[in-house]
């Protein structure tokens, strides 16, 4: 029992307390806050980001980073829109959009795993390049008027009050939890993140794991791009600019180390809830969007600074104790 | 040949090849685009290069220590906006004071980054990702009108942007461009000869060794961030001079452009590798290509970004594949020469002793 409750004292515990505080504050400010519909809306507004945050958790734990996700989102949407404009059957356009995610992910993965380039650089050039391709396809037009079922999927509830994207998020969350926290494949992700050399010598196929992760990241980002197109009812080349930083912020706030090897999906789930509730609460108080992002940025810094300060105080305390003890012994000896 | 080897290293091949590429781009588009060698296009490219290159200069100092500064875009935007607002309210402020104020504002924003990274022991990517959002939020929360308009600014702002300092033939050099160039030369000298400059490289190439070797790592990383902030503040001033009209989205995305310029110029994101001049060449090449492609009628304007992404990837790929291999070979050869020299001298000594 004691071991099971240990996580409460760790990072997740702090996040949980923070989350409860925010929820209590928000529900005291607005009576409708805790209604199911408001909670679903709050997910629905940022659903693409939190879906990508799931795979980003894997990638950062694996000691890599993918900052091209927002551009892949736009590219997938634009591939779909471009082909739809050309008159292809819509189902094929959706498939082509997803395929563009596979290709970009495979390209990123190949450059990182086999050409051994830094993932930050590879995905930085992806961030610029894929966005560029999206602009090449649609120039500055916007494509809309998608078939009715597609729009309905993005905007209307599917089962009960739950929309399609939210159901997908929960399914992916369960799959990700099983993979990362309970399966052997998840152990590989952690081991490689801790020390990829050691992992390689222990017989882990590091390249294949990294390649797979980047391909999945591409597919999921493309899928999120299509969801966004469905939710907004149209797509443009400059959709979703800057999303990558928000996704990474969510993951890091969840206690995942930027150097890889540590972190958990529980933490990321809590930080996702914190970010969503905080944004919703600030939105209800009429705080503008940029300032909401600013508050979350401050939270991100404080979340790492806090534990560091506590550790620093503990270290000086211990050092002083040792010095005092040594002084006492010297006096005794003298 | 040996003296050549002493002064010339494969790493410099990179800067040479960049210069060759820039000349090639220049000549190629010169033959394609009518009136390409006109002063108008020259000014256009140079003005854009000046701002992004100055930001990339500060970024280089931070990258050398194996850190990132993702907040530079927000620092440039915030200082430009802040100075613009001050000038709107106090039109009598002399240009020098405005510039110093911009540098001080930038430095104090960099100071916050530096404190958190060096003394708060938080990874730089987390700190600057946070301050990227925070500084932008401060800009949005700035009281009053959300715009800076050139008509409200004093006359010298628009004069400074278009005045010529001196001219080489037909091509007028503007003060902003000349100032940026002088800064690059100064910083190139500082990073290659001053103790502080060498310490930046030492910390970046092996932080652990630098710490054990007794370098004041925290202080150096801290000063790199303050310097980067100050330089970004100066770039904010240049941004105001260049554009005049600002909104709250000013200089958004500059952080990634500055990293791209440094990386194309051969600065490694793993720290300890690259030069300030390389960054200048990288910024020059990216901007020249951008501006030329925009004027090239053969392909659509929308291709510019896509090609730029490819260019960055290629630059780094070539770096990691060719230049690294060359420099390994080079170092081996040098060690062999050294070893030969040592055995020769020791043999001589033995023969003398006999």
Attribute tags:
heterodimer, A: 334 residues, mainly alpha, ABC transporter involved in vitamin B12 uptake, BtuC, two-stranded antiparallel sheet, two-stranded antiparallel ribbon, 75% helix, globular, B: 354 residues, 14 helices, 2 strands, 2% strand
Q: Topology, please?
A:
The complex is a heterodimer of chains A (334) and B (354).
Chain A: H1 11-29, H2 36-45, H3 47-61, H4 69-85, H5 90-113, H6 119-138, E1 142-144, H7 148-155, E2 157-159, E3 162-163, H8 164-182, H9 184-194, H10 196-201, H11 206-232, E4 234-236, H12 243-253, H13 265-284, H14 289-333
Antiparallel strand pairs in A: 1-4, 2-3
Helix pairs in contact in A: 1-13, 3-8, 3-9, 3-11, 3-12, 4-5, 4-6, 4-11, 5-6, 5-11, 7-11, 8-9, 12-13, 12-14, 13-14
Chain B: H1 2-7, H2 10-32, H3 39-64, H4 72-89, H5 95-119, H6 124-141, H7 155-162, E1 166-168, E2 171-173, H8 175-193, H9 195-205, H10 207-212, H11 217-243, H12 254-264, H13 276-295, H14 303-353
Antiparallel strand pairs in B: 1-2
Structure description:
Chain A has helices at 11-29, 36-45, 47-61, 69-85, 90-113, 119-138, 148-155, 164-182, 184-194, 196-201, 206-232, 243-253, 265-284, 289-333, and strands at 142-144, 157-159, 162-163, 234-236. Chain A has 334 residues and is mainly alpha-helical. In chain A, strands 1-4 form a two-stranded antiparallel ribbon. A two-stranded antiparallel sheet of chain A has the order 2-3. The radius of gyration of chain A is 23 Å and the shape is globular. With 354 residues, chain B is an all-alpha fold. Chain B has one domain: Orthogonal Bundle (ABC transporter involved in vitamin B12 uptake, BtuC), CATH 1.10.3470. Chain B has helices spanning 2-7, 10-32, 39-64, 72-89, 95-119, 124-141, 155-162, 175-193, 195-205, 207-212, 217-243, 254-264, 276-295, 303-353; strands spanning 166-168, 171-173. In chain B, strands 1-2 form a two-stranded antiparallel sheet. Chain B starts with a helix and ends with a helix. The A-B interface holds A 111, 115-118, 120-122, 124-133, 135-136, 139, 237, 245, 248-249, 252, 258-259, 288, 290-291, 293-298, 300-301, 304-305, 308-309, 312 and B 70, 116, 120-123, 125-127, 129-134, 136-141, 248, 256, 259-260, 263, 269-270, 300, 302-313, 316-317, 320-321.
């Amino acid at each position: 029992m004691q071991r099971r409750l240990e996580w409460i004292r760790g990072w997740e515990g702090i996040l949980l307390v923070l989350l409860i505080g925010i929820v209590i504050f928000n529900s005291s400010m607005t009576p409708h806050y805790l209604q199911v519909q408001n909670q679903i809306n709050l997910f629905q507004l940022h659903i693409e980001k939190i879906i990508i945050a799931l795979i980003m958790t894997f990638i950062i734990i694996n000691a890599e980073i993918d900052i091209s996700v927002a551009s892949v989102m736009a590219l997938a949407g634009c591939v779909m829109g471009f082909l739809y404009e050309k008159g292809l059957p819509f189902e094929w356009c959706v498939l082509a959009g997803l395929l563009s995610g596979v290709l970009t992910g495979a390209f990123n993965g190949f450059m990182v795993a086999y050409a051994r380039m830094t993932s930050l650089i590879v995905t930085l050039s992806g961030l610029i390049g894929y966005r560029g391709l999206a602009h090449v396809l649609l120039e500055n037009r916007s494509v809309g008027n998608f078939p009715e079922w597609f729009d309905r999927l993005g905007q209307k509830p599917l089962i009960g009050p739950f929309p399609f994207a939210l159901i997908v998020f929960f399914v992916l969350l369960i799959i990700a939890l099983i993979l990362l926290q309970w399966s052997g494949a998840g152990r590989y992700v952690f081991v490689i993140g801790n020390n990829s050399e050691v992992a390689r010598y222990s017989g882990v196929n590091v390249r294949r794991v990294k390649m797979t992760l980047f391909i999945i990241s591409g597919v999921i980002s493309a899928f999120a791009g299509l969801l966004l197109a469905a939710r907004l009812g149209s797509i443009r080349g400059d959709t979703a600019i800057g999303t990558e930083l928000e996704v990474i912020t969510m993951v890091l706030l969840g206690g995942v180390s930027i150097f890889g090897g540590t972190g958990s999906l529980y933490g990321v789930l809590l930080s996702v809830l914190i970010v969503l509730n905080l944004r919703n609460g600030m939105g209800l108080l009429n705080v503008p969007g940029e300032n909401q992002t600013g508050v979350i940025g401050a939270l991100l810094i404080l979340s790492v600074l806090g534990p560091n300060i506590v550790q620093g105080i503990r270290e000086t305390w211990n050092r002083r104790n040792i010095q005092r003890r040594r002084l006492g012994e010297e006096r005794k000896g003298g | 040949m040996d003296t050549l080897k002493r002064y010339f290293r494969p790493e410099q091949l990179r800067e040479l090849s960049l210069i060759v590429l820039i000349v090639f781009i220049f000549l190629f588009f010169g033959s394609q685009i009518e009136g390409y060698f006109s002063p108008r296009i020259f000014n256009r490219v140079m003005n854009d290069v000046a701002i992004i290159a100055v930001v990339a200069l500060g970024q280089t100092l931070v990258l050398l220590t194996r850190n990132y500064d993702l907040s530079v875009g927000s620092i440039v935007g915030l200082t430009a906006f802040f100075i613009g607002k001050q000038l709107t309210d106090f039109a009598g402020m002399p240009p020098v004071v405005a510039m110093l104020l911009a540098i001080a504002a930038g430095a104090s924003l960099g100071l916050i980054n530096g404190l958190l990274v060096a003394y708060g022991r938080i990874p730089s990517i987390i700190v600057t990702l946070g301050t990227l959002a925070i500084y932008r939020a401060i800009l949005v929360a700035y009281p009053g009108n959300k715009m800076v308009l050139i008509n409200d600014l004093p006359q010298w702002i628009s004069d400074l942007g278009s005045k010529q300092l001196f001219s080489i033939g037909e091509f007028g050099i503007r003060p902003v461009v000349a100032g940026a160039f002088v800064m690059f030369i100064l910083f190139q000298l500082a990073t290659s000869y001053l103790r502080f400059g060498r310490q930046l490289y030492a910390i970046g190439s092996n932080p652990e060794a630098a710490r054990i070797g007794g370098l004041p790592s925290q202080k150096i990383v801290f000063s790199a961030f303050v310097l980067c902030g100050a330089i970004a503040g100066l770039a904010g001033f240049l941004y105001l001079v260049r554009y005049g009209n600002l909104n709250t989205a000013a200089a958004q995305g500059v952080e990634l452009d500055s990293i791209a310029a440094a990386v194309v110029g051969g600065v490694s994101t793993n720290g300890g590798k690259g030069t300030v001049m390389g960054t200048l060449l990288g910024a020059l090449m990216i901007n020249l290509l951008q501006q030329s492609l925009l004027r090239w009628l053969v392909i659509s304007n929308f291709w510019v970004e896509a090609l730029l992404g490819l260019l960055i990837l290629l630059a780094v790929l070539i770096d990691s594949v060719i230049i690294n291999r060359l420099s390994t070979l080079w170092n081996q050869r040098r060690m062999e020469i050294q070893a030969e020299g040592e055995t020769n001298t020791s043999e001589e000594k033995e023969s003398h002793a006999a």
